[in-house]
Structure to design on (235 residues):
């Protein structure tokens, strides 16, 4: 974001950064197409206040998107982005399957950098904010160096323990080592039932809407609806 950015409003903000695997395996069963459909519905629900989402959410929820394979690519914000709030004039970026490997650590570093930059903006402009979220979705084992996995594990855990970050890791398909996923997301890993991206993003939009209406996101119960999309429901 540009240093001279002016806040859209002074309402308390909540930032959610999507970290989305677009490696070649996401073409299987058109998973990436179904993910795109779900993100479009998420945009609509936030912008128009549909499907249980408060109409106030659109002025409070900021969204960033990082797609990754062997390299991360920040799809939102872009050089022309003037706000991280969603708007009716914007269409979501279309995810396309790219490389064959998944360097999850680089992608998480990119997400954490976005969060750090955004917090500086909030502080500079006198805005209050809820704990930022990272939503990681992946369908396979990371190709990141084990030393880098250990480093990001420590960094994520420190952020979560310090209540500076909330995170959820979502396994797509049956090829994700859950122990590894939990290391990458502070122990908050879970698995998608089938390809229920739509149900997941419906749950997420409602959960984030509830958080933006609260004075304390640590006390929000986000379990409602999780059994619609989660394999072996556990929240």
């Amino acid at each position: 974001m540009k240093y001279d950015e002016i806040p859209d409003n002074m309402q308390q903000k909540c930032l959610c950064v999507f970290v989305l695997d677009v490696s070649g395996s996401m073409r299987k069963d058109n998973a990436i197409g179904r993910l795109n459909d779900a993100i479009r519905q998420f945009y609509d629900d936030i912008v128009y206040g549909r499907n249980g989402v408060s109409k106030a959410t659109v002025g409070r929820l900021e969204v960033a998107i990082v797609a990754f394979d062997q390299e991360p690519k920040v799809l939102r914000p872009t050089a022309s982005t003037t706000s991280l709030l969603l708007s009716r004039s914007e269409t979501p970026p279309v995810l396309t399957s790219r490389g064959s490997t998944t360097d999850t650590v680089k992608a998480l570093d990119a997400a954490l950098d976005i969060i750090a930059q955004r917090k500086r903006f909030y502080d500079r402009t006198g805005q209050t904010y809820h704990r930022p979220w990272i939503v990681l979705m992946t369908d396979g084992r990371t190709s990141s160096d084990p030393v880098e996995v250990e480093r990001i594990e420590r960094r994520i855990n420190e952020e979560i323990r310090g209540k500076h970050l909330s995170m959820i890791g979502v396994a797509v398909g049956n090829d994700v080592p859950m122990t590894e996923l939990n290391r990458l997301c502070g122990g908050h890993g879970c698995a998608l039932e089938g390809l229920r991206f739509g149900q997941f993003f419906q749950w997420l939009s409602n959960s984030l809407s509830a958080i933006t209406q609260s004075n304390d996101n640590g006390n929000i119960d986000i379990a409602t609806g999780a059994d619609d999309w989660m394999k072996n429901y556990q929240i």
Remarks:
- The first helix runs from residue 31 to 48.
- The chain has a mean pLDDT of 92.
- The first strand starts at residue 14 and ends at 21.
